[in-house]
């Protein structure tokens, strides 16, 4: 099932590439680059945005060879000649999407929630790799991305999925029991520090105990500069996935690290924790 599903993801990625979606270029991306915290080393000048769902390492190297992309820039004149660029993606790769549903999502989960759905990669994977047996919701604020995901869902007959064009802070009803939630650093490059804090406070309030959360990169790192009313460690239990990453990566260190960059957490039961403290 997973090999067949991976082939379907490849076809979806090709379909989206043919529509000239998020085409990489040497032109700097217009993002809200973080000035504090984990990603504050990324700027408009030193960062290149490439969608990992659409383009793998071979695609990137091909574009470099054809002078569509550069791996370097000049920090003095901005000509991109001498210093390595930061490459970032706001989508997980196809292999990472497969890994989510092959190794990280518990078989007991009945609901998938993809926050910051973008092109819909996780939504497609949730349906494809579970044969549509789980209910999946993708939340995306950008109207163009949401519309494109809906067209792709219809084109490929993706089952039991829903795309909501909205802010997650307006959607308390999407949080369920027995849920698997996926996030790919959806706040850092798009929201102010205050807005990020509001989003994390909202998630802390609405994610239900026992929820399994897969987040790229580590939540502890991207929230350490934020002023939150709670401790991430008290809220989330980190789950070691080294064995699963090794199974995917084998002797390939790059693949191992790519899988390892997705962190798995379980939302703790705050009532049980409070009771333990009292005891």
Gist?
InterPro entries: Arsenite_MeTrfase-like, SAM-dependent_MTases_sf. The protein has 279 residues and is an alpha/beta fold.
Folded structure, characterized:
With 279 residues, this protein is an alpha/beta fold. It folds into two domains: 81 residues, no CATH class; 178 residues, 3-Layer(aba) Sandwich (Rossmann fold). Helix content is 38%, strand content 16%. The protein contains eleven helices and eleven strands. The strands form three sheets. It has a seven-stranded mixed β-sheet with strand order 7-6-5-8-9-11-10. Strands 1-4 form a two-stranded parallel sheet. It has a two-stranded antiparallel sheet with strand order 2-3. α6 links the parallel β8 and β9. α1 packs antiparallel against α4 and α3 packs across α4. The C terminus is likely disordered.
Q: How would the blueprint of this fold be written?
A:
Blueprint: H1 2-18, E1 47-49, H2 57-65, E2 72-73, E3 83-84, E4 86-88, H3 94-104, E5 111-115, H4 121-128, E6 135-139, H5 143-156, E7 161-164, E8 179-184, H6 193-206, E9 212-216, H7 219-222, H8 232-235, E10 236-239, H9 242-249, H10 253-260, E11 263-267, H11 270-278
Parallel strand pairs: 1-4, 5-6, 5-8, 6-7, 8-9
Antiparallel strand pairs: 2-3, 9-11, 10-11
Helix pairs in contact: 1-3, 1-4, 3-4, 9-10
GO molecular function: methyltransferase activity
Organism: Caenorhabditis brenneri (Nematode worm)
InterPro entries: Arsenite_MeTrfase-like, SAM-dependent_MTases_sf
